[in-house]
Every structure is written in C-alpha cells, then in structure tokens.
Design goal:
Blueprint lengths: L1 E6 L7 H17 L5 E6 L11 H18 L7 E4 L5 H9 L5 H5 L2 H7 L8 H15 L5 E3 L5 H17 L9 E3 L34 H10 L18 H14 L3 H8 L4 H26 L3 H30 L4
Parallel strand pairs: 1-2, 2-3, 4-5
Helix pairs in contact: 2-11, 3-6, 3-12, 6-7, 8-11, 9-10, 9-11
The structure holds adenosine monophosphate (AMP) and tryptophan.
C-alpha cells in the first residue's frame, strides 16, 4: 500500500480540511503496516494558481507543515515534504501533458468553479492543475489517495491519464490509484449555508471553523450557526431537506465516531438550543490540543525546515525510478 495526498498551503486549515482529509491521513498513517508507506505533501506548485507574495508563500508552507504535524502527521513515519523541492513532479507533469486531452480538462468542475466567469483570464496553470496532480500521484505509484469528495473527478482523470500513457507507450508503468473518500465527513458544509461547502475562500469567517480559532470563537460560531426551528428527529431520515441541521448533526457524528442515526436518537425531540452547546463542547475539546501544538510549532521555522528537508530527500529518491522509466518509455534521452 502506498498512500499519498496533498494539500495546497494557502490560508489556514479549517474543519472541512481536517475532517474531510487530514484526519484520514493521520488514521491511514497510524494503521500502516511495515510494507506500506505514506507520502503527504504541501502542494506549493499548485498554489501558484493563487496569487501570493513571496514572503506570504514561504510562511504558508511552514504553517501548513506545522498544521499537519500538529494534527498528527509524524515526519518520522510519513514522508512529509513540499512539492517544489521535488522537481520530478513538474517534470512528469510535462511528460503527461502529452497524454492528457484538452477535452478531459474541459470537463473539470473545479476549474470551472475556480475560473468563474472570466475563463479567458484564468491562468494556464489553473487549467492544467489536474495534470500536475496526476503527476504527484503517479510519480510514487500511489495506490490509495485519501481526499475529500471534491477531488474525486481529479482522481478519475489521473486514472485516465495513467491508462492512456501505459497503452500509448506499451508499458505497465503507472499504477491506477484508488480515491479514499470518507463516508461521513466527505463534505462539511458552511455554517452559514448548508448547501455550500465550508471553504477557506468564503468571505464570511463565521462560515467556517479555523484551526486557529480559540475556544470562545469556536463556541460563538457554533451558537450563531444557521439551523432551523424544528426539533431534532428520531432518525437521520428526518433530516432530509434540512441542510443546516444535517450538517451540524453530521459534524457531531463524525467527531464522536457515531452514526447520524445515533446522534439523532440522543437528541430526538430537542431543539438546537440544546444541541449546539453539546456540539461546541466536542469541537472545542477536539481542536484545542491541535491548535496548541500548531501555535508552538509554527514559531520553530528551523525545525520545520529540517522536517521538510528530510522529507524532500526521501521523496526525491522514491520518485526517481518512475521518472526515469517515463522518459525511457517515451524515447527521451535523459
Ligand atoms: P483545499 O483546502 O480545497 O485545498 O482542500 C484540501 C483537502 O481538504 C482536500 O482533500 C479537500 O477535499 C478537503 N476539503 C476541503 N474542504 C472540505 C469540506 N468542506 N469538506 C470536506 N473536505 C474538504
Ligand atoms: N488538488 C488537491 C486539493 O485541492 C490538492 C492536491 C494536489 C492533491 N496534488 C494532489 C491531493 C495529489 C491528492 C493527491 O485539495
């Protein structure tokens, strides 16, 4: 088993990232056997599709590294690095640009969302972003890729690229990766609108719980979260058509490792006045230790850089054979 996943180091981690992705990374790392390996990286090469100044970008990479370690990624057991330090990603991306089709990329919903109305004004990098993502995965022959629901389409594209490359060049080089998408928390929704994803780009900070929010802020956000006037139902079925209620119940279920049915059973017949403080309490207790470790670690730049140095060396060594074989398959003399 080779587990791999990445996250863009832009802005702070929020509850959606934690429950939808990072917590599963930590679980997979912790359940790994001796033959398996985990690679987790900061997708700083992907982050050039978001404009940021030099100093901010440097800070963001260190902060995201600190956040991942604080959340439980152990740099001694997992390979933790930033993508820019391993040029094999960019090199393989270029090779795969010969394989990926414009028609495939045109179907990517994340590009459409991120480019918005001004498609012509979007960067080329944003358009080919999924090809770099495919390279990230294929360069390590990753078998399992834990991500949130929104990355499913990119994983399918990665499989298409791998299959076409293998067929076109008559090789059995790339492994087809499987997305690992959590059932319960694949989509954590905004606290202000149960139909929109919790996102770092939402202009309202009240819409999300950030890893940096203190206990009072977390509690205040939960208490102000949009809900509805109805009482909580006996079973999860009664949450149908109630997006905000579903989201809040779903978050508590995920945090406590229970089903939504079990959470409904506990609060059946009660209103959100009773439910919200209980949810807030669990959130505060879950996030406090992570936040405290994060705030300490982020001041230790030298230690963070040393972690990333070590990770990059291991990643580069693991990537080299695949890159060499890809050049060779294409008849490029390297
Ligand atoms: P992003 O912050 O969009 O770069 O996403 C980083 C990781 O967090 C990806 O694996 C996403 O699928 C996951 N993720 C982001 N937002 C959410 C959300 N609201 N619910 C669940 N997972 C999310
Ligand atoms: N595109 C992913 C996101 O927005 C981040 C990412 C980049 C990634 N490369 C990857 C995720 C490779 C998994 C595997 O969240």
């Amino acid at each position: 088993m080779r587990v791999l996943s990445g996250i863009q180091p832009t802005g702070n981690l929020h509850l959606g990232n934690y429950l939808g992705a990072i917590r599963n990374w930590v679980r997979m790392q912790d359940e790994m056997d001796a033959d398996s390996q985990c690679f987790f990286f900061l997708a700083d090469m992907h982050s050039i599709t978001v404009h940021e100044g030099r100093e901010q970008r440097i800070r963001n990479v260190r902060d995201m590294a600190a956040a991942l370690v604080a959340a439980g990624i152990d740099p001694d057991r997992s390979v933790l690095f930033n993508q820019a330090r391993v040029p094999a990603h960019a090199e393989l991306c270029w090779l795969l640009n010969g394989t990926a089709r414009i028609g495939w990329l045109n179907r990517m919903t994340q590009f459409k969302d991120k480019a918005g109305k001004d498609r012509e004004g979007a960067s080329v990098g944003l358009f080919v972003y999924p090809v770099l993502q495919a390279a990230d995965i294929l360069i390590y022959n990753a078998t399992h890729v834990p991500v949130g629901e929104d990355q499913k389409q990119h994983l399918e594209l990665c499989r298409d690229i791998a299959t076409k490359f293998n067929t076109d060049f008559g090789v059995d080089l790339f492994t087809l990766p499987a997305p690992i998408i959590p059932k319960e928390s694949a989509r954590i929704m905004s606290l202000r609108d149960g139909t929109a994803k919790m996102s770092k780009s939402d202009p309202s900070d009240m819409s999300r719980i950030n890893l940096t929010d203190d206990d009072d802020a977390i509690m205040a956000k939960v208490k102000k979260a949009k809900s509805d006037q109805e009482l909580l139902p006996e079973t999860a079925e009664g949450l149908t058509g109630r997006p905000e209620a579903s989201n809040l119940v779903g978050i508590l279920a995920t945090l406590t490792g229970r089903t939504t049915d079990a959470v409904c059973a506990e609060f059946a017949g009660k209103g959100f006045g009773a439910f919200k403080p209980a949810l807030g309490e669990v959130l505060v207790e879950t996030l406090r230790p992570i936040r405290q470790r994060f705030l300490e670690l982020r001041t230790e730049d030298a230690a963070l850089d040393a972690i990333l140095d070590k990770g990059a060396a291991k990643a580069a060594a693991a990537a080299e054979p695949t890159l060499r074989a890809a050049y060779d398959a294409m008849g490029l003399m390297r």
